[in-house]
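Handout, page 2. Input:
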Amino acid sequence: MKKHLPNAITCLNLLCGCLALTFIFRGELVLGAYLVGAAAVADFFDGLLARALRVSSPIGKDLDSLADMVSFGVVPGAIMFKLFSQAVAPGPEEADFVLPSLWLLAPCLGFIISIFSALRLAKFNNDTRQTTSFIGLPTPACTLVVASLPLILAADRFHIGDFILSPVVLLVLIVVLSGLLVAELPLFALKFKNLRWLGNRRRFIFIGLALILVATLHAAGIPVAVLLYVLLSVPGRVRSRDGLEASPSGPQ
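Output:
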């Protein structure tokens, strides 16, 4: 029975991703963003439970990648599609002068993230270098950045709604995130073998700073936290003495 528990949590990740898609295409992006967060929590705990129970399996690895492709591949592309649709939609006074193909097809650029997420997941499953760390931005981190945008827009505490909904800004974000997904950039994995400071200092520092950022900036702290994650990984390649390990069923 215990061997099925991690897969059950992985399926919960998939369910959250499917539900997120239904709400996103109904225009309820905020609710979809919250479901993305629930999927990320499930994705974290399925790997944690699999290691604790020592029941990792090839089927669990494949199931995790399939679930991640929905929750952290298709979903961020769908969010970008909807945001791009808002950004390029013509106003009443200009609707007659805008080519329909321009503003109907441009939002499809959002699914570039979905394509690169698929490449990222395929690369992870076949790259033996990623047994103790990540190479390229994990798909959940990319998706959390995208999912934070509707939350930032809903509150707009910093009055940056018009900036975010600029087609140029959205396109730049799509290009940057897609590039990071497949970049030859070594990043540490948020996997704990124990709770000692030695060997986990980078993780503890990041988690502490990320919590402070989210507590103070709310949703706007999420992309800043992901940027911090990348910056903390840049100073040097991840070394084995750091105690960094990635699970086959962990975030990819």
